[in-house]
Structure formats: C-alpha cells, structure tokens
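Incident log, structure service

09:12 report received: a user says their structure output differs between two submissions of the same chain.
09:20 pulled the input from the user's history:
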Amino acid sequence: MSTIATGALAGWKRCEGMSGIVLTMQIVESVEAYQEQRVAKVQVALNDRQLRSLARDLTRAASERGIELQARRPWWRVWG
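09:34 re-ran on a clean worker, output below:
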C-alpha cells in the first residue's frame, strides 16, 4: 500500500553514514500547519549515485527558475 502526499518542504537535516546519506525532511501541508509546528518527518536514505542525481535535478530546477546557486565560502577563507 502506498500513500502519496503533497506538501511544502519546511526544513531538512542530513546525516552521513558509511554507505550514503540519510535526509530527514520536514514537510508541512499548509502555512497554518507550519505555524502550529505540525510537520511530518520523512527520512530518505540515498547512496552516492542517488545523491548526485538528486543534486543534479535540484540544480537544474533552480536554474530553470532563474535561481543562482553559490556554495558557501570555506571556513578558512572566511576566518583567514
């Protein structure tokens, strides 16, 4: 049995493991749900190949919408 739900991404956290990454995403159904902190937590385990594919898809989606992505400066350049 599968359930398909829609919502907005309110936040996420990543944890690294030996064989990949576990993303914990907070999904909300509405602004009211977010304000009341009624969030659904979804965990997804991704291996390196899946993580690269997801990053590529998200980068493509951002550039299609005109969003410019930039990485944070390394800490040694910020503090140096």
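09:41 both user submissions now match this output. Likely a transient worker issue. Closing.
09:42 reviewer note: Residues 43 and 69 are 25 Å apart (CA to CA). The two ends are 54 Å apart (CA to CA).
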